[in-house]
Each structure stands twice: as C-alpha cells, then as structure tokens.
DNA sequence: ATTACCCTTGACACCGGTGTCCAGATATGG
DNA sequence: CCATATCTGGACACCGGTGTCAAGGGTAAT
C-alpha cells in the first residue's frame, strides 16, 4: 500500500459478527476500517479504501456510504452520527469532532430520501406558476436558485394550466405527494384567495409573490406596483404631458389593477381628467399592445403619451407608432413596465419601471427556508419591494 | 350519518389488537373500515370517513393514507397492494380489481419518498445547465414539462456556475445525492466530453442537448445547426448578396462552431471567397452584436448582408445600423438564429432560423423516461431535429 | 460514602414502501 | 384418490435515516 505507515497507528479490535453481516466489498472494507483507530493524516487512506470499495461494486458506482458505515468507523451508534449531522446540542464536543472528521474524510452525505421518509418532509421547494411571462418566471427562478445555492434544498418547478378546472387540486396533489418543504407561488396564480387556506390545510409552507400585499409578511413578497405606476405617470406629467393614454392589463391580474390604479392616482393628483376613451384594454402581449394603441391613435386629439402596463405592450405601441410613421419620443412618449431585456433591444430604448424580480425571488426563498433553519436571525426578509423608474429614450416633452 | 344504509352492508369482523396499535384519529377510523365489507356505491362514505379522520388530525392535514391502510381495507397484505400499484403480472385479476377499487375510492397515492428509499432511485429528472440564454432554457423547460405532465416524474432544475472550477463535481454530487432518475443537460455544458463517462459512472441516465451529434441516439437530442446556417446563408446568396459578413459566436460553444461552418460551407458552395475581415467575433449578446457590426460597417466596401449567429446579436446589428442611419433591409440584410420572441418585436422583424427547442425538450424527456416505462413502444424518439428558415422583413436584395 | 441528578450515548421502533422466499390453495396428472 | 406442478399471496427483512426512552458514567449534594 502506497500510504505511509503513519496513517494507521493501532488496530484496537475487530467485530467478526459484523464482518460477516455484509457481503459487498465496500461494506467489508469499511467494516475493517471501523476497528482502526484513526490518526491524523488518514484522509488519504480513507479516500483510497472508499474508492477501492466503490470500484468493487457491480453497479459501477453509487455505492454510497450510509450512516451505519460512518457509525462503525467512528465507533459510535448511528443515532450519534445523526445527532452530529443535525447539529444536536446535546452532544459531547469531542465525540462531535471525531464523527465530523470521519464525515469530512469520507465525504459522506446523508441520503435525502431516507431523511425525507423519516422526517415526513422533503428538502424540496416547489415553484408553482401559471404565468405566460417567460422572462419573469426565469428571473424569479434565478433569484430563488441563488438563495438555495449551497443549501440542501432543491427547486422543483411545476407549471399549472390555468385553463384546466382543477388547478387547485393539481397544486394540492403536487404539494402533498412530494411532501414539499414549501412552495413559492407566482402571480397571477398567487393572487387566488383560496390559496392560503388550501396550503395551510395541506400543511405546506408557502410564500406568495405579488404586486400588492395580499397576505401577511410571513407569506408574501410583494412589489408596490401602484406607487411605481404612479411614479412613472408623474414623470410623464412632469414632462408636460396631460393627454396620457393607458393600455391596461388583462382583467383578473392584480398587477393590472394596481398599475391602472397607480395611473389613475397620478392623474387625479395632477387634476387631469381621464376620458374613458383614453383607456384601452390589453392582454399583456405584444400584439394586444399594437391593437390597443391603434385605438388610442384613432382618437382626436390622440394622446401625446402612453403608459403601457407592461413592456411587451409598450413594444407593441412602439411598433404601431413606427407603422404609422410617428416618431418616438418626439410625437409620442411611451413608458412600459417590468424592465425586460426587450426594452433595450428596441429603438428608442424604452423608459420603464424596474421591479427587482430576482431579489424578490431570493427573498421568497430565504423567507421559506428561514422559517426552518435561520430562525435565530430575526432579521426577517423584507416583503415589500420598491420599484424604480428607468429613464431611457422613449419619453420627451410633447411636441406642440 | 347522512349516507344511506346501502353503503355499508355487513360488518364481518374487528381486529381489536390493531385497533389499539395506533392512536391517531385517521388510522382508527380506517382501522374500523378495514373490517367492513364494502358494497358498490361506497365511494361517498369512504371519502367521508377519510375526510373526517383527516379533520381529527392535530397537524391539520397531510394525514396521508399508507399502503397499510389500503391493505387493511382490502383485507390483503401490503405486498399485494404493492403488486397492484406496480402492475405485477403475478396477481389474480379479482384481487387486483378489489384493491384497485379501494385505491380509487380513497384516492390513495403511494409515498414517493418511501418508494425512492426502497428503490434506491427517485422519480425526479434533473435539468442541468450553465446557459446564459434565458429564453432557450425556458423553452426547453416547457418542452420537458409537457412530456412529464401526467407522469409521476418531477423536474428539478439545477443551474451550475461554469466559472467555478468544480462544475463536474457539482453535477455529480447533485445526481448522486438526489438519486435522480436521470438528467437532461443543456448546451454548452452538454458539449463537455467528460460528461458521458462521469454520468455513466454515477449510474445516472442522461440525455444531452446539442447542436450536433455528439453522442449516440440514446443519449442525444440534437439540432442540425450547420445545415440550418448554410440554408440561411444560401437564402442571402439567392437574393443576390455576395459580400456577406459573419458575426460568430463565442469560442467553446459548439453551436457557434457549427453555425460558422454552415456559413462557410454555403459560401464555398457558391464559390464566394470569404475575407478574414468579414468575420467578426461575437459573444451571443446584444452588445457584442453592436460592437461586431461596427467593425463590419467600417470595411470598404462593407458587407451588404450579415449573418449573425444568434438573434440577440442580429438585434444588435439592427440597432447599430439604425444608429448609422442605415435602412434595413434596403441597405443591409440581416439574418439571425434561434427565433426568439425578440425577432418579431423589432423593426423590421428579423429573418431567422427556428430550431424546435420545446419539441427537443419533449423528446429528451421522453427518451429519458421511455427507457424505463414505455420500452414496448420501440418508436424511439428522433434525435436529430431539423430547423427551418423563417422569412421576415430583414432580408432584401442588395441595393446596388 | 451514598444518593440524586445531569449529561451523553445507545438500543429500538418507526417512516412507507419494495424484494425475497416460502406456505397454502388450486389445478393437473398418474 | 393421492402426488406433484403452478399460481397466489403473505411474512419478514430491508432501504437509511429520525424520535423516544432509558441506561451508563460522572459530578455535586447530603
């Protein structure tokens, strides 16, 4: 054996009964090890033996160490190893160190499935959404995954079909079947009032994302869409616009409601009346933005500025304006909402409202796992996030 | 009790020992049920009792039925229930029907964690990627989830940091820790040659996505980027262009290599020489597209058409052209690659190459789970997908 | 010195499924 | 009518962890 003899110092005892209780190479090898007093610097030999044992496996791999192996090697019971793993306070420091060393040396990792079964709960976090906005979903995912990185949690994504009548049943079965640790629900699904009760009953932690405070701080991470929209419209007013059109979002979306209310709020503040005809319905899609803006352009006099409730529709406005030969921002100012990458890919780049999607995703994840692990840090994650106006090139004072 | 007496016909026997072996309400209730002969039309009462039992739970919910409960109710052993669940052939049809009815009536669902532990394998599919292209990742996810819908599989997403030196270790630990059923790996990570061996050793099924056939049909789903790029360039040549610039993708991306080779192939076919200066390096980003096109515009004579290796860069070309006051497509034709939503949001809409991302994701997922469940349908999923040229408004004959 | 108590650790059952192996029932042949 | 082959279904161990409870050893108090 290549390893120097400083690695193994003393053979204390051998447990023959156990030696014969297993037949696979890996366990025998580790069994022998369990009787060896481990001196410092044994890391090499441990790794070596473990690797050799693995090599003997017929399956070719995944000959994972179990808690029993670690217990044998440390000369303690599996429960003690379990205590080390779970940072139980009632444990001698000396014992803890010894076991931790073995764990570190062998690279042992507890089997998540076994833990899940014993605990009745998984280390999986579900991301549930019915959102048509890919960009938003992905940013959210990114934020959540950032927060989960380095933890034992994994993210399971679960889109649901809002069309099917059994959305709630789907979610419920997902949550209970997989014994999820918790779920993060994205809008517009998250705006459903039945959700809290349903998830509570299922005994599932949850955090809802949204554009307004629909729930308490423990279960909600929200942006303040109303104020943000108002801020955007105030910017238009500040530039001198007073004929401002709105392209609203689809009915049933809370964000659409909030943004519209912010729009109306800002106009009311400035004492600007809003003719019904200045509000066009949109569906948060590029095409609906085009269609809606056609309606606004047809007015006489037409608006000098348009606030679209999301960027896709704002891009539609821009597209429609170009088709009509209107110069943006000279003849028409446009503001969008969301700050998607699209805003900088079009010409002129769109002034828009940025809400911190990824940061909110991160906060949601931390909120969820914080309720379990980091309870000590009482610095609760914020739950209301502010948006900011990003000024680009699509707003200018009215030409007249 | 509201239910009519047709629901319960005969009380056969009671097992008092068992009755006292459990204390929770749900189990007691079901215990009592186990002694009742179930007549047709008992669905209602079963649901009722189960619901009542659930209500008695202190936890408020998740008082799940276990295989033991079903076994009691059916008057068979748990192993028999297990056989029913797993469609074991060595089982009497009569017994099977009886158990299946109970399962259907109670809505029993086996605990995935317990199965995972016993089987040593999870019903989870991992999606591993290091891709900066959000749109692509999401489309892929969509396709995969479509294929997984209705199955017992769930999707676990796992982005890895290509920057960190331990990418392979990360993947390996992810795969072995979670005992994943299999993984789908997205480019450019999927192009790594070490991957197959690594995953094989880990005993993990895998399917790689890519832009060329890097692996056998069982482990690969690929698009044919080279031919698609050539086709796009042929379109430009067919329009009369012969001074065609290329904005290449980043080194190390197989797709960049394939697309470039397709570009060169088409030019060579047509006998068009390619000056080195007509090839500009890009990074697949909007900004790099702008920068690269500036280099091409500075040539004299400049190219009359540009093939950008993805849509982001093509949009950059368009942006740069506008800044220079060049008309597209009159003074410059542009073709992109990927057919992202961006292509229709800009003006003019970009001619581009569409590859069936979602369909490929679906195929990858089916390939993965097909190796286990649907082996009988020998109609293997296709593994090489063709792309098509989408003609929009950014290509026209050269002006001169 | 003896009892009381606390701290540390271990034995054992359990989570909810699956694999193995064998017993009992049924069908078939002599 | 009995012996043997075949089919069904059950008992039991096991997967790899965790919770419960009690035993063992050490120290402090009487």
Measured by residues with Cβ under 8 Å of the partner chain's Cβ, the largest interface is:
A-B, 50 and 49 residues
Mean model confidence by pLDDT of chain A:
82
Helix count of chain A equals 16
The chain-level structural class of chain A is alpha/beta
Read across the widest sheet of chain A, the strand sequence of neighbours is 4-3-5-6-7-13
Gross geometry of chain A: elongated
DSSP, total strands of chain A? 14
Order of helices and strands of chain A: EHHEHHHHHEHEHEHEEHEHEHEHEHEHEE
Into which percent range does the helicity of residues of chain A fall?
40-55%
Tell me the span between the first and last alpha carbons of chain A. 90 Å
| Percentage of residues in DSSP E strands of chain A | 5-15%
The main sheet of chain A comes to: 6 strands, parallel
Oligomer: homodimer
List the defining traits of the structure above.
four-stranded parallel sheet, disordered N terminus, six-stranded parallel sheet, DNA-binding, homodimer, 400 residues, 16 helices, alpha/beta
Protein model, in words:
The structure is a homodimer of 400-residue chains. Chain A has 400 residues and is α/β, with parallel strands linked by helices. Chain A is built from 16 helices and 14 strands. The first copy, chain A, has helices spanning 16-19, 25-34, 43-56, 67-74, 78-85, 93-106, 112-119, 134-148, 167-177, 195-201, 225-238, 254-269, 286-297, 311-323, 342-345, 357-370; strands at residues 8-11, 36-38, 124-129, 154-159, 182-185, 205-210, 220-223, 244-248, 279-281, 305-308, 333-335, 352-354, 384-385, 388-390. In chain A, the strands form 4 sheets. A 6-stranded parallel sheet of chain A has the order 4-3-5-6-7-13, with helices on both faces. In chain A, 43% of the residues lie in helices and 14% in strands. Chain A is elongated. In chain A, helix 14 links the parallel strand 10 and strand 11 (333-335). The model of chain A is unreliable at 1-62 and 373-378 (pLDDT under 50). In chain A, helix 2 (25-34) packs antiparallel against helix 3, helix 2 runs parallel beside helix 4 and helix 13 (286-297) crosses helix 14. At the A-B interface, helix 7, helix 8, strand 4, helix 9 and helix 14 of A face helix 7, helix 8, strand 4, helix 9 and helix 14 of B. Strand 4 (154-159) of chain A pairs antiparallel with strand 4 (154-159) of chain B, so a sheet runs across the interface. The structure holds a DNA duplex (30 and 30 nucleotides).
